Amino acid sequence: MQTLLQLSLLLALTFCQLTIASDPASLQDFCVADRNNQVKMNGFACKNPAMVQANDFSFTGLHIPGNTRNAIGSAVTAATVTQIPGLNTLGISMARIDLVPWGINPPHTHPRATEILTVIEGSLEVGFVTSNPDNRLISKILQKGDVFVFPIGLIHFQRNVGHGNVVAIATLSSQNPGVITIANSIFGSKPDISTDILAKAFQVDKSIVQKIQWRF
């Protein structure tokens, strides 16, 4: 019994040493996303390096204001692996955010990324809410040149509180950060979440839930 225990411990230690000795970083220069590859994996399969071009690593468009003529008065122009295949496996992406006066980037979360935002023009109210049970709102009004961080997975928002348009640049710690807009997810799911569930969750009448769901 003692010999078996010693052997098990030795194997466990050996495995740990092998794990620690492994290389967690990329073992190649790059892995440009091959969107035509049908292989399912965590991310995209690699394009043949011999077929890689400079365009795989570039994107043109962040100098162009997004279309803010919508109900929320904002637009997000993303530069993720979808737009830049060369970002695949590199763990970084960015986006331009445009907001008209009193426009909002509604409460949302990025399930796979922390976000760091820099205000390029305007006055921007930002904030995030901590997890249960505290649900603490941490918010601030930023001016041109200010930077703010939204921790991974936490619900956050932005609102233009100035008299002119706001332009901000966000950098995210994933090539595919994902976005879950809270209102869209709750009231615009397909199929709908039961009105009974939402009415109890928000402590409102079912008719109110149905009206909101209809809008989405």
UniProtKB/TrEMBL annotation:
PANTHER family: GERMIN-LIKE PROTEIN SUBFAMILY 3 MEMBER 3 (PTHR31238). Oxalate binds at residues 105, 110, 115. Transmembrane segments: none annotated. It comes from the Eukaryota. GO terms for cellular component: apoplast. Mn(2+) binds at residues 108, 110, 115, 156. Pfam families: Cupin_1. Keywords: Apoplast, Disulfide bond, Glycoprotein, Manganese, Metal-binding, Secreted, Signal. One of its GO terms (molecular function) is manganese ion binding. Its main location: secreted. The keyword Signal applies. It is found in: Secreted, Extracellular space, Apoplast. May play a role in plant defense. Probably has no oxalate oxidase activity even if the active site is conserved. Belongs to the germin family. Residues 1-21 form the signal peptide. Disulfide bonds join 31-46. Residues 60-210 form the Cupin type-1 domain. This is Germin-like protein. SUPFAM superfamilies: RmlC-like cupins.
